[in-house]
Amino acid sequence: MRVLAVARNTFREAVRDKVLYVLLLFAAAAIFGSKALGWISIGQDIKIVKDLSLAAVSVFGVLIAIFVGTNLVYKEIDKRTIYTILCRPMHRWEFILGKYLGLAALLALVTAVMAAVAAVYVVVLGGSLDVTFFQAVLLIYGQLLLITALAVLLSAVTSPILGAIIVFSTYVVGHATSIFTELPPQFDGTFSKRVLEAVYYIIPNLSNFDIRAEAANGVPVAPGYVLWAMAYGAVYTAVLLIIASLAFQDKDV
Amino acid sequence: MIARWLVIAPLTLAIGLACCVVAQKQLDASRETGFDEELLYLPNEKLLKHFTGGLDSVVADLLWLQCIQYTAEEFKGDHKYVWLNHMTDTITRLDPYFVDVYRYGGVFLAALKADSDASVNLLKRGMLHNPRAWELPYEIAMVYLLNRKDSPDSPAQAARFLHLAVATETAPQFVVDLAANIARQHDLDAFERALWEDMARNSDENMLRELAQRKLHELAIADVCGQLSKAVELYENRHSRLPESLDDLVSGGILERAPDDPLGGRYFLSGREVLNTTLQNEKLGRRLNRIRGGVNRYQKRTGAWPPSLEAAVEEGDLEFVPPHPYPGQAWRYDPATGEVESGAGPGT
User: Fold this and answer.
1) Which residues of B fall within a CB distance of 8 Å from A207?
2) Of all helices (H) and strands (E), which one includes residue B269?
3) How far apart are CA A139 and CA A212, in angstroms?
4) Which of B51, B56, B301 is facing A128, going by the closest CB pair?
């Protein structure tokens, strides 16, 4: 109940954040502007619109998660409003979980709105949507939940700017984790190879959540894959939230 | 105050904008580079894939648009197309499902750059990632027919790839007709037989050897059907009527005995034609798959099963309703469940 109260307030607070609307405006511009690129293709306009729309949903979702998420706990400490919350009978982990759930609800709303706008736009342009498009949106949301958990963790332990840089770097490296396994033969049997393989499993593999190429080209994706990717995201998110709660528990506010 | 806003502000804006345009043009002219210089710095596709931040398919789209412009520039210019292979390779590695890049890239490489090897390689790579795209084997067939027509095995290769295009069960009717014409003209059966014989002898995989054996039996059965149809014609000439069954051919002295089907099917008469249940069942399975695919596409698109198979055709989800391979039989379709069944044929 206390968790839900914090989540509700976080949601209300985040909805009033102007950054959210600026980013949504850019996302809408990217989605509607994608048709212009289609004009110079050879009949691939719908594919390009789908690609850019899904990329906009993903990129602007991540930006919202970073900008809002890395400020979430830090702002409460900085403005000292946290004292009014923590003096109540509430565990610190409940505060972290509530903050996370509030932002997760906001991202669900934002993702649904952007995906609905993209879907309607594709249909209006004469394209068709299949189930892979919606699977791609679901996995984008799974990715946003993981990124948000990392942003909340960093918000509890560091400053918003440093947190934003770390989350953004993780987002970029998380899409390039295969670089740690596709090593040249000189690495075979070396200690470095084992270390890099360990890094491969430690860094969140965000390419697991990327089926946008399949969605844009209408290539079916097995429901089992989507379930495994969501399960991977759920476990990773849970671990990050537990670490965030532990870190915040010991934090001197 | 108002005059200041109405006159000075727009004037400042216009002059400022004009100055910016002039300055930008100067900068553009001094930094102008050709496509070749730009593409020199196009990174290795593997490296590029790691640093797109998950935007592989968007980067592929942007590179494809640049590739179209590059091809148009080269077409108007010196026709070298030096970077075309690298661009198409990069794009298709970033987005391996981008069928149009394989297709048009293959056409550009074969028709404009006259590099039919690169074209066929690109299209074959596309087939590995997109086995249901009829366009890719079709374009390979066109490369063999149009760009490699001097090569002696080109017609047979074209026939083979058209056969593969038809086997995707997504090819439009003109491709099916073209495949049949080319096969007739260039004796595809002989080519196909050699292909399966080679596989039956040399394949390491037990499953592939068994498949090749079955295909060889099917070719032999098709040959027997052709011979039996000629025997029916002979019977009609002699007796001025059609035989009622294949036994009439034996009793009429045209055949010594009715042939056996090594795959367990049987031969039967359909007017002047002799058909075989093994071959017809094979067609039945493929056609059912094709119809079910169209029905499922309709359902996926509209959320409801089509009221009839013709409705799926009208909506463009099914190109046409293929005829039932057994004479006198029709497909059974249930619009409540979307299930398509075969009416019982002689061998079903």
Assistant:
1) 54
2) strand B267-270
3) 9
4) B301
- The secondary structure of B114-159 as a DSSP string is --HHHHHHHHHHHHHH-TT-THHHHHHHHIIIIISTTSTTHHHHHH
Give residue B76's pLDDT: 80
Domains in chain B: boundaries? 41-187, 280-342
Smallest CA-to-CA distance from B221 within B189, B256, B248 is with B189
| Distance of alpha carbon A50 from alpha carbon A46, whole angstroms | 6
For A52, the closest of B53, B58, B95 (CB atoms) is B58
With a CB-CB cutoff of 8 Å, which residues 102-121 of chain A face chain B? none
Distance from CA of B296 to the nearest CA of A (A): 11
Contact B100 A43 (CB under 8 A): yes
Quick one: three-class SS letters along chain A?
CHHHHHHHHHHHHHHCCHHHHHHHHHHHHHHHHHHHHHHCCCCCHHHHHHHHHHHHHHHHHHHHHHHHHCCHHHHHHHCCCHHHHHCCCCCHHHHHHHHHHHHHHHHHHHHHHHHHHHHHHHHHCCCCCCHHHHHHHHHHHHHHHHHHHHHHHHHHHCCHHHHHHHHHHHHHHHCCHHHHCCCCHHHCCCHHHHHHHHHHHHCCCHHHHCCHHHHHHCCCCCHHHHHHHHHHHHHHHHHHHHHHHHHHHCCCC
* Cβ atoms A107, A144 nearer than 8 A: yes
CATH topology of domain B41-187: 1.25.40
Cα of first residue to Cα of last residue in chain A, in angstroms, is 24
Helix (H) or strand (E) holding B275: strand B273-276
User: Phi and psi dihedrals of B331, rounded to 5?
Assistant: -70, 145
- Please give the residue of chain B at the shortest CA–CA distance from A214: B97
Our count of domains for chain A comes to 1
Tokens of B287: 């056609």
Residues of B whose CB is below 8 A from A206: 54
> For residue range B285-297, what is the model confidence (pLDDT) as tens digits?
778 877 888 888 8
Q: CB within 8 A of B255, min separation 6: which ones?
A: B228, B231, B246, B249
Q: Based on the number of CB atoms within 10 Å of its own CB, is A132 exposed (0-12), middle (13-18) or buried (19 or more)?
A: buried
- B92-109 pLDDT, tens digit each: 999 999 999 999 999 999
Q: What are phi and psi of B198, to 5 degrees?
A: -60, -45
Closest CA to A142 of A67, A218, A237: A237
Residues A106-158 have pLDDT tens digits of: 999 999 999 999 999 999 998 889 899 999 999 999 999 999 999 999 988 88
For residue B36, pLDDT over 80 is answered with no
Q: Is the ipTM of this complex over 0.90?
A: no
The domain of A155 spans: 2-249
**A215-244 residues touching B, CB cutoff 8 A:** 216-217, 219
